[in-house]
Batch of 2 targets.
Target 1
Amino acid sequence: MSIENKERRQVLKGLGAGLLAATAGVPFFAMAQNETLVRFLDMPEDYDVPPVEPGSTHIINTREITNFYSRDFYVVQHYGQPDVPVEQYKLELTGLVNRPLSFTLDELKAMPSREIDAGFECGGNGGRMFQGLVGNARWRGVSLREVLNQAGIQDLGREVVFFGADQGTEEIRGRQVEQSFARSLSVEDAMSDDNLIVYEMNGMPLEPHHGYPVRMLIPGFYGVANVKWLTQIHVQDTRYMGRFMGRDYVTLKHENVGGEDRWMETSVARMNLKSAIVRVTRRNNIHRISGFALNDGTPIRSIEVKIDDGPWMEAMIDPQASQYSWKPFHYEWRNASPGEHTIVSRVTDINGRVQLPQEQLPERVSYWEEFGQFPRRVLIEG
Ligand SMILES: Nc1nc2c(c(=O)[nH]1)N[C@H]1C(S)=C(S)[C@@H](COP(=O)(O)O)O[C@H]1N2
Ligand SMILES: [Mo]
């Protein structure tokens, strides 16, 4: 059985009572010819986003998602877009390993590869940009674990650091220092079966803004973990504390710590359980509410939609969804009454974890990890 089918089976098992669409094969985000967009009152009517521009952030218009595999995938890069000439490209494996290694792109491509469907969002995604820092793709690459095993991690190795080719100047304690974009994982997280050193996205070589020639893919983690333009993997015996692990992408939130009320700072890592409505359409007299869910790969039990003060109603989940992909969903809204309505979605996983309204989440003084419910205002025409 292909890995894909295995994943699908796992996710379907996890879906349990969750409703699956009978219309398998029809992309959930596709729109029929006579289907029209319903107005969001919380979004400018002429909301539009600029196209990808190398070196800058690209927010997608989530209302215009048409495919399971994103045609328009968001872009974030903190130090601009480096040029990585493939003739000179090398991925170095260094540090506490028995055999330091070095790979050209061709050498990586000659190794056994795997494909996986995975979606992710930026740790800074949220309602401000209508959840537009998100994407879903099919990735191809080689197993990080295989590569680490080839090198042989020494007993003292604790942490695996991934460095990109892009660099910026950071002021740290009054001093200007050149730093490369980098993120790290514990050896245990790095050795997870699912992590890939990736060179293909949706069947094509990575585009320059998505990390050409090689990037990381850590399924289930926020986008920041997926280091682009990957040039070095380094094993060390201490935690890595660079900007994107220790200072930035750090969430400050109120937590109960063994009975003590504390302000805690945590590095953005695994994705929180989240769903969001991105579009409402109308076809004849039927309205359709569409959205997506994302999480850390824990199987999903249900996605539900609530209209005004009504009950939670189960939405259909795209049968194409798999463990780490996004989960497109839709809900057929019959007899929608003309006027203004508030609609919201929530996702529940098989452990019973439920996506809560923003105001019921612990106090969070941060721009990062916005995963509460995301209510939308719509106007139904008579
Ligand atoms: N080398 C490098 N990798 C990086 C970044 C970066 O600035 N430099 N940004 C990270 C962040 S914050 C996100 S959200 C994702 C975005 O991936 P994408 O642009 O392919 O969507 O890349 C991550 N990998
Ligand atoms: Mo990000």
Target 2
Amino acid sequence: MSSKSNKNTQLVSSGRKKAYTHGVVNPVVQRASTIVFDTVADLKEAAKTRGDKTLFYGRRGTTTHFALQDAITELEGGEGCALYPCGAAAISQVLLSFLKTGDHILMVDNAYEPTRDFCDKILVGLGISTTYYPPTIGAGIKDYIKPNTKVLFLESPGSITMEVQDVPAMVKVANEHNVMTILDNTYGNGLHYRPLEHGVDISIQAATKYIVGHSDVMMGVAVANKKYWLTLRENSYLLGQCTSADDAYLALRGLRTMGVRLNQHE
Ligand SMILES: *Cc1c(COP(=O)(O)O)cnc(C)c1O
């Protein structure tokens, strides 16, 4: 999507498959825990797909969630999108999905405060160490990488002070050292910045902010590239993350007007 009008067209048309809308304009709000299957064979088949756009169990999402996931995946340009009950949950669960005891994470110094607190108060207790780096370090991030560095976490523009990071230069260094890259794209929102196009592995947003846009829903999203999507999807299920169909519907409704709202913000 190159021009602004194309992006706005994408925002209003994404996630509207007939399977989700049943022929009306917007996806049906499909609330569910248990799913009813016609045969045991159907149930077994659905279990195999692990909820990838097929109904299996409420935690794995319904067609309302699938519509939002499709739209956000298209917005950020990735392989798939996991939904979380808020932005802070998206950040903590993405990190817990990939870090283990003994690992080291590089965290940008101007990260959103709860992200810092999660490193300092939760990860530390799991034996995962954090080093903070200056947001404008660029390729100099090389000097911060240790043998056990697993994740380079970016936030650009960064919370409150708004430094813009040299993402391509940092991703290049990370790739050379086999370090995965995760970026909090809440400010970049997918319209102004698409981290995966610049080599980032996972883009996270507090959808609570620009996507929902009306201060009435908490929601977090994480879009992963092909390399990390299946692990992120599976581990998010295992960590018990889910959102309500009503919240997914409202987030999708917010997304439709994100472009015009951001013009006013500017
Ligand atoms: C608000 C915010 C979060 C956390 O989102 P919640 O939905 O409030 O949990 C994370 N990162 C940034 C940059 C934010 O502004």
